Amino acid sequence: MVIKMILIGLGSNLTTDEFATSKEILEAAMDMLAQRGVEILKRSAFYETEPVPKSDQPWFCNAVVSVETKMGAIDLLKLLHDIEHDLGRVRRKRWEARIIDLDLLSYNDEIFPSRDEWESEAQNINPEHAIIPHGRLHERDFVLIPMMDICPDWQHPVLGKTTEKMLAGQQSAGIVRKML
Questions:
Q1: How far apart are the first and last CA of the chain?
Q2: Degrees (nearest 5) of the Cα angle 143, 148, 149?
């Protein structure tokens, strides 16, 4: 049975004058989602994670939430970008330290651009459009481990593997530890 879920990945490794910790920033992002009509159904624990790719930037705080919304995938993605902007994110270069990163990991069982194009598009480092499910979620411990908290049986609509199986087959890309 396919479990339909909208999943959002949250990450932060910089703070602001308003928010003293990355965990506070992620909490603020979740509050902003709720204020804008996105109901959070489940949320993972917070995890401290090594930057990927490895660098000397600060470690991240990561989490994953399952949500419900009447918005379509593209409108939800736009909202995530708006919230990033409202919290102070400025996009300069890929994989840089950031105040907030909100990724649309999955939108029910939708595949975008199409099943036939997903795999080649998912490998594109700078895709020109949305890739749903997220093109690299299955390669990232910092996504899969929090997903295990809330949806170990969720099945990737292209790869056909559950969260649990994707994590079991994953070669670790960095340290991920649950925050207290």
A1: 34
A2: 105
Looking at 36-155, list the stretches that DSSP marks H as alpha helix, in order from N- to C-terminal side.
73-86, 115-122, 141-150
Lowest pLDDT segment from 26-30, 112-116, 162-166: 112-116
| 80 vs 125: which has the higher pLDDT | 80
pLDDT for the residue numbered 96: 79
Element (H, E) at 103: strand 101-107
Residue 108 is which amino acid? N
Cis peptide before 133 (omega within 30 of 0): yes
> Strands 60-68 and 101-107, how do they pair?
unpaired
Which residues is 49 bridged to in the sheet?
60, 176
At 9 the three-state DSSP class reads strand
DSSP-derived secondary structure for 135-151: TTGGG-HHHHHHHHHH-
Mean pLDDT of the chain: 91
Which structure tokens are listed for 58? 């600060």
Q: What is the DSSP secondary structure assignment for residue 46, as one 8-state letter?
A: P
Of 131, 163, 1, give the one whose Cα is nearest residue 66: 163
CB-count burial class (<10 Å; 0-12, 13-18, 19+) for 88? middle
